[in-house]
């Protein structure tokens, strides 16, 4: 069982390449909060907010490590859903 670490302020965001509009809105909402956003996306904005880190591509081991280091995740309901469940990462799933 994965313990909850309330001091962990790392948030994983992985929505897929076609969800850029939703991704921009999520980043806009969270950019001034006390969290660090780890975003898996093929696109990196020109001037990303200070609390964002963009990754692309990641191999499976790197992705697994990043997922386990984050307190929670925001994800599309694709293949990543199974990986989040296996790693017991608390998640907000967007259909």
TrEMBL record:
Protein name, UniProt field: CMP-N-acetylneuraminic acid synthetase
Protein species of origin: Helicobacter pylori (Campylobacter pylori)
Lineage: superkingdom: Bacteria
Entry-linked SUPFAM superfamilies: UDP-Glycosyltransferase/glycogen phosphorylase (SSF53756)
Gene3D superfamilies, A to Z: Glycogen Phosphorylase B
């Amino acid at each position: 069982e994965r313990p909850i670490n309330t001091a962990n302020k790392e948030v994983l965001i992985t929505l897929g390449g076609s969800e850029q509009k939703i991704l921009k809105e999520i980043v806009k909402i969270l950019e001034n909060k006390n969290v660090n956003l780890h975003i898996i996306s093929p696109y990196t904005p020109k001037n990303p907010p200070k609390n964002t880190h963009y990754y692309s591509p990641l191999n499976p081991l790197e992705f697994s490590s990043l997922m386990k280091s984050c307190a929670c995740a925001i994800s599309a309901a694709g293949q990543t859903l199974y990986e989040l469940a296996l790693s017991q990462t608390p998640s907000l799933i967007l259909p």
